[in-house]
Amino acid sequence: MSVRMVVASGSAGRAEKSVDRRKFLVRGGLAAGAAAAFPAPAIAQGIRELKLVTSWPKGLPGLGTSAERIGRTIAAASGNRLQVKVFGAGEMVSAFEAFDAVAAGVADMYHSAEYYWEAKSPGFSFFAAVPFGLTADEMAAWIHFGGGQALWDELSASYGVKGLLSTNTGVQMGGWFTKEVQGPESYRGLRYRMPGLGGEVLRRLGSVVVALPGGEIIPALQSGAIDAGEWVGPWNDLVLGLHKVSKYYYYPGFHEPGTVLSTGINKKLWDSLTGEDRNLITMVAAAEYTTSLAEFNANNAKALEQITNDKSVEIRKFDDSLLMALGKASRDIVAEIGQKDAMTRRIYDSFSAFRNRTARWAELAERGFLNARHIALSGSTKGQP
């Protein structure tokens, strides 16, 4: 059964998607070759084969392995009626082509971060990470119980995609730097790898922001093409080897307080599934969100110990004056982005209202407890870790 047609509203939308698909298939020959090598999913003897492309190197712990676990769990939960083949970045399409591949029907699913699609609509960033935004738990609460999923569905459907929360990396670190940074003036001219709205904030402070896939960060730091770069957190950063090419490791990660990675599914394919299979995939994604967050938190704690014991690395906290400057720039940037178009404005309004509502509870509950635990276990009222 072919799923190479995509959903669009109106004849003009269908024509636009058709043109976009043709451009995608012929660009560079990569996607076209992949399309020929991996035919569209077929139903044979009750088995449906699905292709899942990712934005991560094949087998990368945390990011890549989460996508592979999603594939295995879907197969197991469906009694192998739905079989998922996972492709790392570059195996079928490049890291930043995953969305276009799924929208065009060249691939069936992707595992990636929605802020990579911000050029299509700034609204996508709100479903990945917003500077000084929502934590992992708060993101899940907004999506599932604050109206976020309905807005996400409306936005993604216009591109022929259905999006689901499926992975969360937790609070991220501020990044690796080849030189010290102090106040806001340190960011002027700083060449920094950072995607999404966080990158826009850095531009506002005078940085030169570079968008690079994870696999290209280390060569860029080694060559001096960039002065700093962030990836995820201690676990994935160690795996990537960032501690070998940078001396200073800064926190906190203002830009990504609870980064969502999504499973996007071709909308035509999604609509062709039975209600049972749609529920199955939805539940697998929800379970993986919890599992992945637990995995990241456990392994980040272990990796932090290793980094702390590495005498060649210095862990530093961003200066308060810098955090204040980042906060002001973040408020301005997010508010401006939120007014770009009617759809993004609705997403921004919903996100902001939910953040304001949940912030009070987080102060009383989460921060209240964390402060109390620190005092109880350390015997000190100082808040530094």
In a nutshell, what does this entry contain?
This protein is an alpha/beta fold. Helix content is about 50%, strand content about 15%.
Characterization of this structure:
- It is a single chain.
- With 385 residues, the chain is α/β, with parallel strands linked by helices.
- It has a domain at 10-168 and 258-297: Bacterial extracellular solute-binding protein, family 7 (D-Maltodextrin-Binding Protein, domain 2).
- Helices cover 48% and strands 14% of the residues.
- Helix 3 links the parallel strand 2 (47-54) and strand 3.
- The longest helix is centred in the C-terminal third of the chain and has 37 residues, at 342-378.
- The N and C termini lie far apart (56 Å).
- Residues 1-19 and 25-40 have low confidence and may be disordered.
Chart the SSEs and their pairings.
Elements: H1 10-26, H2 30-37, E1 43-44, E2 47-54, H3 63-77, E3 82-87, H4 98-104, E4 109-112, H5 136-145, H6 148-157, E5 161-168, E6 175-177, E7 191-193, H7 196-204, E8 208-210, H8 217-223, E9 228-229, H9 234-240, E10 248-251, E11 260-266, H10 267-272, H11 275-308, E12 314-317, H12 320-337, H13 342-378
Parallel strand pairs: 2-3, 2-4, 7-8, 7-9, 10-12
Antiparallel strand pairs: 1-2, 4-11, 5-11, 6-9, 6-10
Helix pairs in contact: 1-4, 3-11, 5-6, 6-13, 7-12, 9-11
Quick one: how many beta strands? 12
Continuous helix count: 13
- The CATH first-level class of the domain at 10-168 and 258-297 comes to Alpha Beta
Mean pLDDT: 89
Q: What's the name of the CATH homologous superfamily of the domain at 10-168 and 258-297?
A: Bacterial extracellular solute-binding protein, family 7
- What is the straight-line distance between the termini? 56 Å
Architecture of the domain at 10-168 and 258-297, according to CATH?
A: 3-Layer(aba) Sandwich
What is the ordering of alpha helices and beta strands?
HHEEHEHEHHEEEHEHEHEEHHEHH
The general outline is globular
Strand content: 5-15%
Q: Please estimate the helix content.
A: 40-55%
Mind summarizing the main beta sheet? 6 strands, mixed
- Low-confidence sequence ranges: 1-19, 25-40
Radius of gyration: 21 Å
CATH topology of the domain at 10-168 and 258-297: D-Maltodextrin-Binding Protein, domain 2
Overall structural class, as computed from helix and strand content, comes to alpha/beta
